[in-house]
Amino acid sequence: MKNSRLKIYIYNNTTPTIRSRGNTIDIIDRNFSEDYNSVKVNVKGSSRNRYIIHFHGLQSGEISSTCTCPFDWGTVCKHQVAVANEIDEYVDIKNVKKTVKKIEEVKYSGSDAIRVPFSAQKDCTLDWIKLHTTERVINQAYVSYEYKIKNEKLEVDFFEFLVTNTRRNFRNSILIHKKEGTLSLQCDCNATNQYLCMHQVLVLNHIFDHMPQAFLSEQETREIKSRELREYGFSIEDEIYKEYFNFEYYNKKLVAVPIHQGTLKLNQYQQGLDGIVEDLITGEIAKNDEIPSGLVADQNQKEKGIAIGFHFNKNSERMPLFIIPMEGNLKKDRSELTTKITEITPETLIFNKDRYAGETYDLLQELLQESYEAVSSRIGISDLDTAKHSIARLRRIIPDFKDAILYELKYYSKSRDRKISKHHLNHIKRMEVESASLSFKVKEEKLHYIFKSYITIAEVTYDLAKVKMEYKFPFVIKDGVYYLNESIGSSRSIKTFKDNPELRIPKTEFESYYNRFIQPLSTKFPVEINHLNKEMKTIPAKKLRKQLFLSEINGFILLKPMVDYEGTLVEILNDSYVDELSDGKIIRLKRNEEYETEFRETLKGLHPGFLLQRQSFFHLSPKEFIKDGWFLDAFDMLKKEDVQIFGYEKLSDMKYSHHKPSFSIQIKSDIDWFDAHIKVAFGDTEVSLKEIQKSVINKSKYVELSDGSIGILPEEWIQKYSHLFRVGEVKKDGIRLSKYQLSVIDSLYDELNEDIPILQKHREIKKQLSSFQEISKVAKPKGIKTTLRDYQKEGLNWLNFLDEYNFGGCLADDMGLGKTLQVITFFKHLKEKKKPKNAHLVVVPTSLIFNWQEEVRKFCPSLKVFVLTGGDRKKDIAAFKNTDIVLTTYGIVMRDIEYLKKYTFNYIVLDESQAIKNPTSQRFKAIKLLKSDNKLVLTGTPIENNTFDLYAQMTFANPGLLGNMSHFKKMFSIPIDKNKDKNIAQELKQLIDPFLLRRTKEQVATELPEKTEQVLYCTMEESQQKLYDAYRNKYRNFVLNKIDEGGVGKSKMYVLEGLTKLRQICDAPQLLNGDEEYTADAIKIKELLRHVTEKTGAHKVLIFSQFVKMLDLIKTALRTEGIQYEYLDGKTKNRQEKVENFQNNDQIRVFLISLKAGGTGLNLTAADYVYLVDPWWNPAVEAQAIDRCYRIGQTKNVMAYKMICKGTIEEKIITHQQNKKQLSNDIIQTDESFVKSLSKESIAELFS
Questions:
Q1: What is the DSSP string of 1050-1111?
Q2: What would the DSSP string read from start to end of 1013-1049?
Q3: What phi, psi does 789 have (nearest 5°)?
Q4: Strands 809-811 and 996-997: what pairing?
């Protein structure tokens, strides 16, 4: 090898073994660029595989090379060595044209051309060759085995070959030109031109044997050209094709070679699109699933002579990049390492920890997570995980490279001494996390549309076909700066379009390829098209179909929701336009936002992991997908929502049946026994009861099915039926039970066939619309055993008015003003006035059943009440005969809806109607099925969180009053809740005023004693304060970073998490969940005990907390002080017994109540002190708690204390609520949903 620059490049990047192996490689052909600065060479390897080698920088710049072989133990392989030997004389030519011409002249300095007659290739036989040479030449050529023939140039009617004598290492060049019935042959050997030389004979034999299309007739050539052109959308009849194609020989065939970049065959445009989209999906997962942040180092490594090396392994998809920390002697200006450069390994850190400063040590630990050993250890996980870890970690630590010495390590070998040669290092100017981005433009030509690619780097946009840049996964390199790409998908997309920066699409094919290629691409990147007009297309909602497509990629299961718009599938998690090209116009689909949003929210509710995912699909690991039979419940819910599911059967290793078990039973009895004949099936596949019993007894949720799949038994299914399978004797197709085991039938109730006597029929609810008129007075009906207050009489008048005009209504009086009494009086009035044939239905929370029974017994015992509760409840509408009121709960209505919906009630009354405020809930849907002549809702808090709470309640009472759900959101909820529009709030108030009656205690119950509300400030002691400050600082940084990444809307769950932790610390550090135990004193418990023992005297006290664990701590403290108490939370069964004990037992001074469980249904007028241990987001809930004792019947002044830790989140919540409470009297009496109203600035203030 003569050229010193090429020789240095090869020797620095190879070993002697690799260089020696280069001599065994066959060069097939080579093709230099016009300026001879680069060359493309095809070679045949030792395994007879063919590879393509590129060399660049042959005349100027840095020499670089690539090869398509799988070699991955260095930079340069043996094939590149062979090419270097081949091109040696063409490197660093000072006068390219002159020198190359001289080289070619040397090649052809031998004989002149010899011309021989020629007609067609089929006539070219050995006899034809003998006519033009000597017998000696023939004999030499046909017995020679020491010559190799290589194609140097193959064009139509012109060929250049190289004939090499492998034994003597001589080479001869032969030119052949076919023209007008002759072949002109020239060889650079010294033979006479009177006849064909041996080299020319060898080449002709090679052509006849291996190049069947070399010497075709003019007509044959035209047919081949025509066929080739048709594949590109051209015709040979149109001479314009000559501007776009040359014709050359490739792999023994005549082929069309495009002159312009990006001219592809018609079937090639779609190729690569699937890969681009898949890469983008891959990148989205990686971008979302970042590694948790570790230590951040402000490195100052120059003192130690430390540098960071990056090795880009272009020949390995599995290990595209790894990092090599290194150290060595520093140059005087500290800009680079000079000598004694060695790799820093984990062992180096362990045994020499004292050599590195703390920050440097931490950073080196981080870097070693991307070392050769670390990356190779992750290969078994998946290519996705390997690359995603690398990108996520680099994105986090590159900002710390500001003053670091950075190198690209061209060659890496794991040597025993870990030494690194300076020759293997290229200095990196700097690295940036600013990502490059792609964009596209479509431009028009005569016959084509050109699809051009552009790349934006550091806010400058370049033509991707012309820009001088490099791509090394996962970086784009421009002007010596390495820009880290955003994700795997974006990185691979840049490479794809860098290789194909322009596409020329025939105009005749543009419509097809726009819809197949450009439109899908435009959902990921900006695409500019100026020559097409646009039209909108609308599809009616009734023709839309919800679909969910399942697929796999890199160890994830993807769930891609789509809506079928009459054949056009739209990704609902992608907000981009959906366009289709037709008749030269872009038809833009008008998407149904309401339909898509409803579908999207349904899907988000299926799994908590979906809430944070921001891609055009949802994704789960297979483990999450099958955990606790998640996909069974999900599929079941989706099918109920008419969602079509595709692709489950194609998921690899998914052997689980996608059916839930169905259970049917028939009972046959005898004197001493009865048989439950049971059929359990997963879809159409029945399961042996023995197999079911085995799984249930072993507490396994899996059962093998006869078709080879695995059925999953839901946990609740196992719990429900385990008693049956344990107690009964399993037969072939049933379970035999003793007559003394009749209680087992309880677990079978829902599955009994309709002809079984114990099966009850259900009823349906129906609603209608009403209208409005003025109110007339009504006399108190006979049989009401109390004196009605004036406002209660007005309530009766209002209810009668609604009844006269068939209105529904909402009675929204304050807690404790007697809403129940007003309704009972109204029912008695109806009985006297109309004598209704059917009963009224009153639906209440379970905690209010006893209250209603007592109120009817106390105030109007003549009204007959049928209580529909309990597991042994009678499920027969005949039971309602001669009954005035059917009293039941929301849960019973949902369970018994099938027979309840068949009965038409006179009135349906929903007490605590905020229970149905969610119009998409199963509870609301069940209630809507009930039928009645009219409807009422009762609630003290019609609006708990936002205006939308009104929608379901008022829609139930008066269907159509507030329009459909999307209309109400658009017209009222958003303007009032988000935009604080008081005018629209007033409009809504006027709209609902005739149908909603609300009176407050201040307005009507003037005889009530005084109520005083005070804030009881508590100052935390040092240990509690330190813990609070630590958590506040931690969550402040974490939450604000999340907001910067995804905005306030996407960060609300983190805000809530942080606020909850801080509120728990304010109550008591012991409330924190986690491995660490906190023993800091709780100031609130100390202050509470001081008040109970010193301030309240003999008065009775209510203590409310949101946190049950806080109530447990207070219980312990009360027991220590010997103070007797009652306790109630959501699990308490005997509520009324506890209430009566507190009300009537003088020894019980304190009642501990969870805020959620005790907010309604309790009358605790014996108490006159209330302590709210922790502030709640919604002041209405706090008011409900205070109203447990401040209600009709209270004779003592009430003192209510809100316990607030000074200088904490609690104080700021109170202030924030006061500042934000703008709607309090605009509509009814409302509070805004606290967290939803927060801005980034107010969140920062809360955590300050």
A1: GGHHHHHHHHHHHHHHHH-GGG--SSS------HHHHHHHHIIIIISTT--EEEEES-HHHH
A2: EEEEEE---HHHHHHHHHHHHHHHHHHHHHHHHH-SG
A3: -75, 165
A4: parallel
Helix (H) and strand (E) counts in the chain? 40, 53
pLDDT tens per residue, range 376-385:
665 544 445 5
φ and ψ at residue 258, rounded to 5 degrees: -60, 140
Angle at Cα 323 formed by Cα 320 and Cα 327, nearest 5°? 155
Q: How many whole angstroms separate alpha carbon 371 and alpha carbon 974?
A: 52
Q: How many C-beta atoms surround the C-beta of residue 171 within 10 A?
A: 14
Say if CB 250 and CB 29 are below 8 A apart: no
Classified as helix, coil or strand, 599 is helix
HSE of 839, CA atoms in CB hemisphere, 13 A: 24
Q: Which residue spans within 912-1023 are E strands per DSSP?
A: 932-938, 996-997, 1011-1018
Helical ranges in 863-964 per DSSP H: 890-895, 897-900, 922-928, 949-957
Which is the CATH superfamily of the domain at 1013-1023+1080-1234?
A: P-loop containing nucleotide triphosphate hydrolases (3.40.50.300)
Numbered ranges of CATH 3.30.160 in the chain: 108-215
- Greater pLDDT, 139 or 112: 139
Least confident of 138-142, 457-461, 862-866, 908-912: 138-142
Q: What angle do CA 847, 851, 853 make, to 5 degrees?
A: 115
| Per-residue CA distances from 747 to 740, 743, 751, 871, 875 (Å) | 15, 8, 9, 11, 17
Q: How far apart are CA 970 and CA 962, in angstroms?
A: 11
- Asked if 43 and 83 count as a contact pair (C-beta separation under 8 A), the reply is yes
Backbone angles phi, psi at 782, to 5 degrees: -70, 150
CA dihedral 1028, 1033, 1034, 1038 (to 10 degrees): 140
Is the Cβ–Cβ distance between 491 and 472 less than 8 Å? no
Q: How far is Cα 45 from Cα 47, in angstroms, rounded to an integer?
A: 5
CB burial of 14-50 (b: ≥16 within 10 Å; e: otherwise) equals beeebbebbeebebebbebeeebbbbebbbebeeeee
- Pairing mode of beta strands 158-165, 170-179: antiparallel
pLDDT level of residue 389 (50, 70, 90 thresholds): low
Encoding tokens for residue 457? 């780097």
Q: Between β-strands 430-432 and 481-484, what pairing exists: parallel, antiparallel or unpaired?
A: parallel
Quick: pLDDT tens for 1013-1045. 888 888 888 889 999 998 888 888 888 888 777
What is the assigned CATH class of domain 108-215? alpha beta
pLDDT tens, 795-853? Answer: 999 899 888 878 889 999 887 788 999 999 999 999 998 888 899 999 998 878 888 99
Mean pLDDT of all residues belonging to the chain: 79
Tens digits of residue pLDDT in 206-215: 888 777 777 7
Res. 414 pLDDT band, cuts 50 70 90: low
Q: Which of 1099, 1156, 1104, 1148 is nearest to 1123 (CA)?
A: 1148
- Please tell me the predicted confidence (pLDDT) of residue 1148: 93
Give dist(CA 1030, CA 1062) in Å, integer: 10
- In terms of pLDDT, which residue wins out, 1128 or 694? 1128
- 790-1004 architecture in CATH? 3-Layer(aba) Sandwich (3.40)
Task: Tell me what pLDDT residue 1224 has.
Answer: 38
Residue ranges of the chain that CATH labels 3.40.50.10810: 790-1004
Q: How far apart (Å, rounded) are the C-alpha atoms in residues 1029 and 1031?
A: 6
Through-space distance between the first and last CA atoms of the chain, rounded to whole angstroms:
70
Residue 301 has pLDDT above 50, yes or no: no
pLDDT score recorded for residue 430: 86
Give the least confident one: 943-947, 974-978, 1177-1181.
Answer: 1177-1181
Residue intervals of the chain classified under CATH 3.40.50.300 are 1013-1023+1080-1234
